[in-house]
Amino acid sequence: MDVSATTARRYLLGRQGLWPGRRWAGRRGTARALHAIELLQMDPLNIVARSHDLALHSRVRDYRPEYLDELLYKKHEFFDAGGTLEARPMRELPYWQVPMRRRAAARRWGAFAAQHADEMEAARAALRERGPLGNRDFNDGPRIANNYRGRKLSALALYCLWLSGEVMTHHRQNFERVYDLRENVVPREHDWVAPEAEAEQFLMRKWLAHQGLATAREWQRTAQWMVERPVSRDEARRWLDEALAAGDLAEVGVEGHAELYYVLKPDARSLKALEAGRLPRGWQPLDTTSETEAVFLAPLDIVSARGRAKPWFNFDYIWEVYKPASQRRWGYYVLPILWGDRLVGRLDPRLDRSSGTLAIDGFWLEARETGRDEAFAAALARGLASLARFVEAKRVDVAAVSPPRLRAYLKAELKGVGLGRG
Prior knowledge:
There is one protein chain. The protein is of the alpha+beta class. Among the domains are: 90-186, no CATH class; 295-416, no CATH class. It contains 15 helices and 16 strands. The model has no long low-confidence stretch (mean pLDDT 94).
């Protein structure tokens, strides 16, 4: 199957629930969005809102952060796991337990567990007797040099147990994990371990569902990371060939791209519908579309993060928050602006909680004419108002937006909906 670049771009956005507009709403819509996203990367940094909350806000009408908290830590329909911290469906835990255990047993953490067996057992005993517990509940014990995962051996012991799935996140306090034993968190029907080969097959298909489209090289490069064991190029290629032979995958040629892409066979129907000019089943937006309301993509959104913005949108994007200020090209917390099916610019938002102001500290458009487009101006104003309400800002400061005519329009529109300065 061959498709245009526009079809591929719309499919990638739509598969992730970002195009043509929000199609989920509220608490249950948040759960449906999480299943569709497949993997939601989480991050603690909260400049305007946390990356995972921005990702869900861009997909779910009337989303609130407490909805995700409820699904993760009260209803336990999802769980968080690392090292790349992600929210995953709880029903998938039997498959994830295979790489989780491998990660904890690998050289770094396996050596830690062997060297500090007493601390590991002490953490288990404390959770059995006093759990749920967080790092702060372990006041005594040896201190270590500064480590990204903690400054106490007890903190590293808890983290190691969490990596393996022996303990889970019971809840969070200011985003810090509070742990409990797995059997106290996981519903009994999900507390088992899948056969290794079945788990690996499931996880590779899940990764492709998350990506939407991927080349053979991307498949091979990712296999080792997904299953947490060495995977040779030949083995990864064999997995791909077997999935193709079984009819699980389809090959896709994309206009302007030299390499073939692969897609899950059920998702190929969406590509065919889009290529024929039809909206895939279930993609109808609830109200606004990305044409009528600009969307600000989360820093870790899979459609634009990890180098994907360039090949699919011809858009340079690197989250610069962890770069020294002198090395930043754009700004501290820059987000891509999605309008329609294109990334047309960037903005650097910051929430001043003391004054209730959503400040736009930087604003850059890819093309100058976009700033003169009345449809874009209206969509941008609506997007800023939506973001401001989500973060509970009382006003929006657009002083950094240019050109001046666009800035004046935004000020007037935001003032008209009660979000103007003053």
